[in-house]
Amino acid sequence: MSLVRATVRRDLLLAARNPGEWLNPLMFFLMVAAMFPLAVDPDPAFLAKIAGGIIWVAALLATLLSLDSLYKADVEDGTLEQWLASGESLYMLALAKALVHWLCSGLPLTLMSPVLALMMALPDDAYGALVLSLLIATPILSLLGSVGAALTAGVRSGGLLLSLLILPLYIPVLIFAASAVYHASIGMSFNSQLGFLGAMLALAMCLTPFAAAAALRLNLSR
C-alpha cells in the first residue's frame, strides 16, 4: 500500500506540474457542449430537453481524450517493469491509476457540469440528477478506460484503437446516466437509473483492475 500511495502521490504531482493534462479535457468538455446550441435550435425549451444527453456525450468524449497516456509513460520509462519486479500487486496499480485519472478528469467534469447545465437551460429539478449521475458514473468511465489504456499501452498512436475498444463499453453508462437526467427533468423518479449505475460501479471496481493487470502483464511479456 505504501508503493500504491507513492504512485498516486507521484501521478497527482505530475498532473499539478503539467496542468494541460487535466485542463485539456475540461476545455474540450466546455467547447463541445457550447457548440451544440450553435448547431441546433438555441431555443431554451428545446435545449432543456436534450441538455442532459449533450452534457453526458461531451463528458464521455472528454474522458476518452485523456486515457491514451494513462500507462504509456510508465511503459516507456520502465516503471511498470520495476513494479512487476517488486512483486507488488498490479491490481492495486490499476486501481490507483484509475483513481488518479478520475481525480484529474472525472471530478473536474462533475464540478463544471452545473455551469453547462445553466447554459443549456436544464430544468432546476434535474441538477441533482446530473451531478449524481456524473459522480457515480465517471469513475466507471475511468475504470473501463484503464482496461483499454492497458491494452494499448505498448501501441504507437493507440488513441484511435483505444476509442474503438472502449466506446461500446461506455454505451450502457451513457444510456442510464442520460436517462436519469431526462427523468428528473420531467419530474419522474430517477432512483432506478442511479441504482443501475451504482451496481455497474461496484462491478467495475471489482473486475476491471484484474483485466487491466492482465493486459499490462501481456504488454510487459512482449
What report would you give on this structure?
The protein is mainly alpha-helical and 222 residues long. It has one domain (2-220). Helices cover 82% and strands 0% of the residues. It has nine helices and no strands. It has helices at residues 2-17, 20-39, 44-65, 72-76, 79-86, 90-119, 127-151, 159-185, 191-220. The radius of gyration is 18 Å and the shape is elongated. The mean pLDDT is 85. Required for the export of heme to the periplasm for the biogenesis of c-type cytochromes. GO terms for molecular function: heme transmembrane transporter activity. Belongs to the CcmB/CycW/HelB family. It is a multi-pass membrane protein. The chain crosses the membrane at residues 21-40, 46-67, 99-121, 127-153, 160-182, 194-216.
What structural category arises from helix and sheet content?
Answer: mainly alpha
As for the number of domains, it is 1
* Percentage of residues in DSSP E strands: under 5%
Spans with pLDDT under 50 lasting ≥5 residues?
A: none
Q: Please, what is the average pLDDT?
A: 85
Largest sheet: none
| N-to-C CA distance | 28 Å
Basic shape: elongated
The number of helical runs is 9
Order of helices and strands: HHHHHHHHH
InterPro entries: Cyt_c_biogenesis_CcmB, Cyt_c_CcmB_bac
Main location: membrane
Protein name: Heme exporter protein B
Family: Belongs to the CcmB/CycW/HelB family.
